[in-house]
Amino acid sequence: MEEQRFRGIGVSSGITLGHVYLLQKIQPRIIYQFLIDRGEVKKEISRFKKAVNMAKAEFLKIRKGLPIKEIIHILDAYTVILKDPFLYKATLKRIKDEKINAEWALLKSVEEIEAIFLKIDDDYLRQRFQDIKYVANRVLRYLTGESSDFRGIQDAIIVAHGLSPAETTHFQTNNVAGFVTEIGGRTSHTAIVAQALKIPAVVGVKEITYRVRDGDFIIIDGLHGEVIVNPTSATIEEYYRKEKEYKLYRKEIEKYTHLPAQTPDGFQLKVMANVELFEEVHSVLSAGAEGIGLFRTEFFYLEQMDFPDEETLFTHFRKTVELVSPYSVTFRTLDIGGDKFVSKPDFGEAMNPALGLRAIRLCLNQRTLFRTQLRAILKASIYGKARILIPFISSLEEVHQVKAILKDIKRELKKQGHPFDEHIPLGIMIEVPSAVAISEFLAKEVDFFSIGTNDLIQYALAIDRANEQVAYLYEPLHPAVLQMIKVSVEAAKKAGIKVGICGEMAAEPAYIPLILGFGLDEISVNMQVIPLIKRLIRETNFRDVNCIVNEILKLSTAIEIKNYVKQALQNFPQTLNNIG
Ligand code: PEP
Ligand code: MG
C-alpha cells in the first residue's frame, strides 16, 4: 500500500502515530419488514428490548470511572432518553399495532419526535433532538448488528466526517491519540476542545473518510496540519523522531513557564488561560497562567437535557476561584449558539445559529437561566477573585440591561444574606463589529474589554469559522481585523479600562509580536501554548513590535502586511512558522 499525504488545518499541536478508527456516522442500513404472525411480533419486541439494554450497558460502561462530570451528565441523559415513552413505549406499540419490524418502528418514533421538536420556537430546546437521534442510532446499530462498543478506540486515531465538541470530550476517557475530520475550522469549538484535551488534531481534510480504512496506520501532525496514511518505514521513523523532539522541546520550554511574560525593555503582558472543561482548572497554575482570562461556562450545558442549577454552578465556580487564587477567574456567561451545539450539518445550516439567538441575546431572553449563572458567580466571588464577562455584545442597550439585572441580583443577594464581591469587575467581549464601532461608548460602561478574535474575524469578514471551505479567507492579518483591534484598544485606553484578547489569534506564536505591539494589558490562551507564548514575549522588545504595528496599520492588504511582518521579524524565526 502506498504512502499518501493529505493537508488539512492543524488545530491542536503535537505529533501522533497510530491506527485509524473510522467513526461512521452514516445511518445503519435498515431493512423494512411487515410481521406475519404473533410469534414474529414477540420476537421483534424482545429484539428491541435487548438492543435498548445493550445501548444502556454501553452508556453505563463508558460512564464508569469517568473523571469528567459534564460527560457523566450526558451519559445519564442518554440512559433516560432510552426509556422515554415517546421512544420506548411508542416503538413497542408500533411493533404490536402496525406489525412492523423493530428498526422501522423505531425510525417512525424518531420521525414523530422530530416533528414535535421542529415546532419548538426555542433554538436550544429544538437542538436537544440531536441527543434523541444519537441515542436512537445507538439502538439501531445494535438492532442491525452494525454496532460497535468503541472497542479499539483506545489509543486510536479517530477519522470522522465531523465531530461535535461534546463528542470530542468523550475521547479523553478513551485515551484517543488524535483525530482527523473532513469539516471544521481553526477556531471551531471542536478544535478548541481538542486543545483543552491536549490531543493532536487536524480538521478540514477533504474526503479523508474515503481514503482510509479501519486499522490503517496513520500519522498526524497537528502543528502543520499534515496527515500521512500508510507511511513507509522511513516516514514512520522520521515522525517517531519528530514526536520525540517535540516532546523534549515542550519539556524544555515548560521549565520556564513560571517566569513572568515581561519583555527585555520592561513591558509586561498578563498571560492567562482559556478554560473549556472544568477538569482543566487544576492545571491552570502549573501551566504558568496568571489566572483564567476566559472560562467558557457553556460546557456545563453542552449536550445536556437539563440546565445546571445554581448550587451546581456555585460549587464548580467556587472551586475554580479557590484553586486559581490569588489570580482571578473570568467567568464568561453562557455563550450557547453558533457551532457550540450544532457541528452537525443537517441541523445548523438552515437556521444560521451564528446570527441567531446566541449568547447574551439568549440570556436576555431566558432571564432565569442568566440570573442563575450570575448569582452563582457572585456567590463564588468571595472565595477568591472573580470577573464577569458578557459575550456577543452588539449594542449599548444590552450592556444597560445586563447592568440592571446585575444590580437587581446584588440587591437580592444582600437581602438574602449571601456575601459577594461588591466590586466584581464587569467586562464585555468585543467580537461583533458593531461593538468595535461603538467601543468608545461601551468602554465608559464596563471595567474591561476582551477581544474575541474568533468571532470578530468571522463576523467582520463574513466567514463561518467552522467551515473548512472558506477557511482560506479566515485571515487575522486582514487590515479590517487589525484596524478593529486598534480601535478597540484605543477606546479602552482612553477610558482607562483593561483590554485583552482571548481569541485563538493570541495563541498563535506567529502573531505574538503583533499582539504584543498593540500594547494590550492581557491575553488569554489555551494552556498548551502558554510556555511558548511567554518565552516569545520574554525575547521580544516591546518598542520594536510597537513600531511594526504602527507601520502595518498603514497598509491596505493582508499580503502587504504579511510581507512587511515577515521582513520585519526576520530575527524571530520561531514566530514565522504560520504566517502563510
Ligand atoms: C472568540 O470569539 O474569540 C472567543 C474567544 O469566544 P468563543 O471562541 O467561545 O466564541
Ligand atoms: Mg466568541
What do these coordinates show?
It is a single chain. This protein is α/β, with parallel strands linked by helices and 580 residues long. Helix content is 46%, strand content 13%. The strands form two sheets. Strands 1-8-7-3-4-5-6-2 form an eight-stranded mixed sheet. It has an eight-stranded parallel β-barrel with strand order 9-10-11-12-13-14-15-16, surrounded by four helices. Helix 20 links the parallel strand 15 and strand 16. Helix 11 packs parallel to helix 14. The chain is globular. The two termini are 32 Å apart. The chain binds phosphoenolpyruvate (PEP) and magnesium ion.
Short summary of the structure?
By secondary structure, the protein is α/β, with parallel strands linked by helices. The protein contains 23 helices and 16 strands.
Q: What is the terminal-to-terminal distance?
A: 32 Å
Number of helices: 23
Low-confidence residue ranges: 342-351, 575-580
Overall pLDDT: 87
The unique ligands bound to this protein are: phosphoenolpyruvate, magnesium ion
Overall outline:
globular
Nearest-angstrom radius of gyration? 25 Å
Helical fraction: 40-55%
Q: What structural class results from the helix and strand content?
A: alpha/beta
**Largest sheet descriptor:** 8 strands, mixed
Strand coverage percent = 5-15%
Using DSSP, what is the number of strands?
Answer: 16
Strands of the widest sheet, in order across it, are 1-8-7-3-4-5-6-2
